[in-house]
Write a structure and sequence with these properties.
This protein is of the alpha+beta class. The chain has one domain: Ubiquitin-like (UB roll). Helix content is about 10%, strand content about 25%. It has 2 helices and 5 strands; from the N terminus they run E-E-H-E-H-E-E. Strands 2-1-5-3-4 form a 5-stranded mixed β-sheet. A hairpin with a 5-residue loop joins strand 1 and strand 2. The protein is globular, with a radius of gyration of 13 Å. The termini are far apart.
Length: about 110
């Protein structure tokens, strides 16, 4: 019998003050997991191609060392976010979930248009 993908838990603090804890399959992007769960505050206008910066999240400090460094492309997109860039700013489309990220906590950036 084949087993499905391993699941981890990720926590998203939303702009409205709510915290959503999601079960997420290892190997998916944080953006895709959030979109699939109906998190409206992550627009993901480009569909996850790192070309719009509408999936901006701020990763909790204690998790930053477990993420690979942002690529030059991601860093350039982070310079164009609608919300101010912060030390833990990342694009959720560029965060690929692994077993090491079980319990990951991020705050979804507040975007005002």
């Amino acid at each position: 019998m084949a087993l499905g993908p391993a699941l981890i838990t990720v926590h998203l603090d939303l702009p409205d003050g709510q915290r959503r804890s999601l079960q997420a399959p290892v190997g998916r992007s944080l953006m895709r997991v959030a979109i699939d769960a109906g998190i409206d505050s992550i627009a993901a206008d480009c569909g996850g191609t790192c070309s719009c910066a509408t999936c901006h999240v701020i990763v909790a400090t204690e998790w930053l060392a477990l993420l690979p460094a942002a690529t030059d492309e991601e860093a350039a997109m982070l310079d164009m976010t609608a919300a101010p860039r912060e030390p833990g700013s990342r694009l959720s489309c560029c965060i690929n979930l692994s077993a090491a990220l079980d319990g990951l906590a991020v705050r979804v950036a507040t975007t005002q248009y």
